[in-house]
Structure formats: structure tokens, C-alpha cells
Amino acid sequence: MTTSYLKKATQADLPDILEIINEAKAYLKEQGINQWQSGYPTDDDIKNDIDLNISYVLMVDGKIAGTAALWPGQDVNYKNMIEGTWHGAPEDQYTSIHRIAMSSKFRGQHLSEKMISGLLTLSLENGFNEVRVDTHPKNVGMQKVITNNGFEYRGIIRFEDPNETDNERFAYQLYLK
């Protein structure tokens, strides 16, 4: 039987996390998806997530299978919705799932759903019943993972990144009951 669980990432996990992020960048490029192709997320982004205690890893039989950041509170990137609307009031607090990636060694095992499920549990346990996530319009695989976890498509956001020319993302929202 396989043992899997989420844990907060530590600096000791950084080399494995960076390897997973770089594999994900290459995988997106292979698929012709212009997401994470301009340097983002940087090594410093990942280090900062760990320092801020918002970085998590999915452990499978003692190995890091995936990584994600769970940001608490409002996300400035979600204020610039160019098509569609969020449910709720503008001042509502929520968590955002960012930088989710799975190791190539574990790809195809539906572990992204397991990771998101764990992040949803953490959101609720930390007092947030609303969760948001976004992905590139061409990232159909992640869109499927997101909607399979109960998220509702809300529209298109545009984030401001001077290094990124392809900066529109599909935005999703989920309320936990």
C-alpha cells in the first residue's frame, strides 16, 4: 500500500522542489504551453515560499512527489479580472494555490488531485472556506485537475509580470462547506 501525505516544505527539500519545478517547466514547453517559460518561478520565489511557511510537498512513500504554495489572504494577481467575476465580496479572504507541480517520476498517477485535496483541507483548517487557483488557457491537463477537484471557472485574469508576455490565465474558485 502506498503512503502519501502533505507536509510543510523545509529548506532541506529545496533541491527536490527546484528539480520538480524545472521538470514542470520543460514539460510545459514540450506541450507548447507558454507558461513558466520566462524564468518564473525563480529559485528565489521557491525559497521565499519556504521561508514564509506557505510551501508544501506531497510525500509518497518517503519521496517528494509534488510541490505547491498555498497563499493565505488576498492575492493581488486576482484583482485584475478582465473577463468574468468572482463570487463574494471584494474584501473576502481566501487562499490561493500557486506553483503546483508534480515530479516526472510520479506523473500520470492522479497525485495532483490528492495534493489539491490536502491543500483544501489545510485551507479550511486555517479558517479559509474560499480557495482560488489559475492556470494557462492551453494547460488543459491542469484545467482538468482543477475542475475535477470541484473548482468553478470564473473568468480570465491578467497578472503583471514585466518578464512575461503571455500573462492571461483562466481563474477558478471553490467554496468549502
Automatic annotation (TrEMBL):
Pfam families tied to this protein: Acetyltransf_1
Listed InterPro entries: Acyl_CoA_acyltransferase, GNAT_dom
Single Gene Ontology MF annotation: acyltransferase activity, transferring groups other than amino-acyl groups
Domain N-acetyltransferase: 4-177
Entries under CDD domains matching the protein: NAT_SF (cd04301)
Superkingdom, natural source: Bacteria
Transmembrane segments: none
Record-given protein name: N-acetyltransferase domain-containing protein
